[in-house]
Write a structure and sequence with these properties.
The chain has a five-stranded parallel beta sheet, with helices on both faces. It has helices at 19-25, 38-41, 46-62, 74-85, 98-113, 143-153, 174-186, 196-210, 214-217, 230-234, 240-247, 253-274, 295-302, 308-320, 325-338, 343-353, 359-370, 385-392, 397-402, 435-448; strands spanning 5-8, 30-36, 68-71, 89-92, 117-120. Helix 14 (308-320) crosses helix 15 (325-338). It is mainly alpha-helical and 449 residues long. It is globular and about 75 Å long. The chain folds into three domains: 1-123, 3-Layer(aba) Sandwich (Rossmann fold); 125-157 and 195-274, Serine Threonine Protein Phosphatase 5, Tetratricopeptide repeat (Alpha Horseshoe); 295-448, DNA Cyclobutane Dipyrimidine Photolyase, subunit A, domain 3, CATH 1.10.579.10. It is 49% helix and 5% strand. It binds a DNA duplex (15 and 15 nucleotides) through helix 6, helix 15 and helix 20.
Length: 449
DNA sequence: TTTTGAGTTGTTCGA
DNA sequence: GTCGAACAACTCAAA
């Protein structure tokens, strides 16, 4: 009988379409393990901890209750586990985020010294970051050519689990499971259903009724027009390759558009992989002056800026761990162009509260808004929070849903409470700033540099 | 090497 | 109300 194979799960918390699982199974009995790494877990807020906890419980069920959960530094925990069960190999999906890649390098070195094989199969992306290159062999810095090259590169079909995979049971750490359950119990917001079955159900529903209108309605925060798969994609509960395979044979603008959104996720992962320093600072520094966070930041964070669509978005984030993409742009523009704060201030807050918070997409989405990222954003692209609200929440339903102080205002007028006779009757705050003035200030700062 | 066309998501103003 | 122009300069990708 051959030695067991450890399947170390990280951002691939699923059973289906799992190339690393297949690879592990060819080596021997498979021991699925997840490590609660304090470097990641302890720094996450209660919402993100809760979503991970729910996902881990579902993952354990996917693996027939045999998920081995341990806590600690993986560089210690994984080699220990390997010794314990006499494993000859450790199987993972390739991690390309800077922190995870550094962690993997450390674990891999320790294992190599012990003569244990380290096998990387697959990644959280249809095309592993670093593989889409231009004619000079370099990565892309502009999305559109990346998209073309990404499509031309293509991707494999879903991985089918080999017959007769045998899962090995190993002692988990009861204290670690207690921490998971405590995190779940302490989660301050209601979470979506976790796990693969829930992700598949969400996807099936989107394919059946949401995809057709995706092209035209995806920008409407008042409608449920997006896939809402991002919390599952974040932990690899569903793999984009699975989605792309299901889209085969379908055509039309909506399919193209949804595929492009998946490509954006891959593009930003590629950019972060090639430019790890962009995690903490500007990819393309503009040299503009930023203010220090103060009362304006607190108003933004708490959803009381006096700009209805901004406040609706910030409150949706706090209440649900999710914010509509269009509103992420509007609120980000407000922080960077109206409050004149540096984008990492907002990016940090988003990451602390989003259950789908993806390091690469969040970082570079923010940099796009700030004009420091991959897209050479025209300096004059400053969102007007009122006209954006009127355009994308045309009936005001989104604002009324998240801002109860404005629930009595009918129609699109909710975006301009200052023009409504009883607009402030229920205590909604007055605007904390003059957008027209701050827009000019932002433009001036860009030109002054 | 040089050149050329293009670059997710906008706003305002004036005709 | 609608529509086109103006709002900078630069970098990137590819021919």
């Amino acid at each position: 009988m051959s030695a067991p194979a450890v399947l170390w799960l990280r951002r691939d918390l699923r059973r289906a379409d799992h190339p690393a699982l297949g690879a592990a199974a060819t080596h021997g009995d498979v021991l699925p393990v997840f490590v609660l790494d304090p470097a990641f877990f302890d720094t996450a807020g209660p919402v993100r901890q809760g979503w991970l906890a729910a996902t881990l419980r579902a993952l354990d069920a996917s693996y027939e209750g045999r998920l081995c959960l341990r806590a600690g530094d993986p560089a210690t925990v994984i080699p220990e586990l390997v010794r314990e069960v006499g494993a000859a190999s450790v199987h993972v999906s390739t991690e390309t985020e800077p922190g995870g890649a550094a962690r993997d390098a450390a674990v891999r070195a320790t294992l190599a010294a012990a003569g244990v094989d380290w096998v990387e199969t697959g990644s959280p992306y249809a095309v592993t970051p670093g593989r889409v290159v231009n004619q000079s062999g370099e990565g892309y810095k502009v999305f559109t050519p990346f998209l073309r090259a990404w499509r031309e590169h293509g991707w494999r079909g879903p991985a089918v689990e080999p017959d007769g995979v045998r899962l090995l049971a190993a002692d988990g750490d009861p204290a670690a499971w207690r921490r998971v359950d405590a995190a779940l119990a302490a989660c301050p917001i209601p979470l979506p259903p976790a796990g693969e079955d829930a992700a598949r159900a969400r996807w099936a529903e989107f394919l059946g009724s949401g995809l057709a209108g995706y092209d035209t309605d995806r920008d409407r925060p008042d409608l449920a027009a997006t896939s809402r798969l991002s919390p599952y994609l974040k932990f690899g509960v569903v793999h984009p390759r699975t989605l792309l395979a299901d889209l085969q044979g379908r055509t039309g603008k909506a399919v193209e558009r949804f595929t492009a959104e998946l490509a954006w996720r891959e593009f930003y992962a590629d950019v972060l992989h090639r430019h790890p320093a962009s995690l903490a600072g500007d990819l393309n520094p503009l040299g503009v002056a930023y203010d220090e966070p103060g009362e304006g930041f607190e108003a933004w964070r708490d959803g009381r800026t006096g700009f209805p669509v901004v406040d609706a978005g910030m409150r949706q984030l706090l209440a649900t761990g999710w914010m509509h993409n269009r509103v992420r742009m509007i609120t980000a523009s407000f922080l960077t162009k109206d409050l004149h704060l540096w984008w990492p201030v907002g990016a940090r807050h988003f990451l602390d509260h989003l259950i789908d918070g993806d390091l690469a997409s969040n970082t570079h989405g923010w940099q796009w808004t700030a004009g420091t990222g991959t897209d050479a954003a025209p300096y004059f692209r400053v969102f007007n929070p009122v006209t954006q609200g009127e355009k994308f929440d045309p009936h005001g339903d989104y604002v009324r849903r998240w801002v109860p102080e404005l629930a009595h205002v009918r129609g699109a007028a909710v975006h301009r409470p200052w023009d409504v006779a009883d607009g402030y009757a229920r205590g909604y705050p007055r605007p904390i700033l003059d957008h027209a003035a701050e827009r000019l200030e932002a433009l001036a700062r860009y030109q002054r540099r």
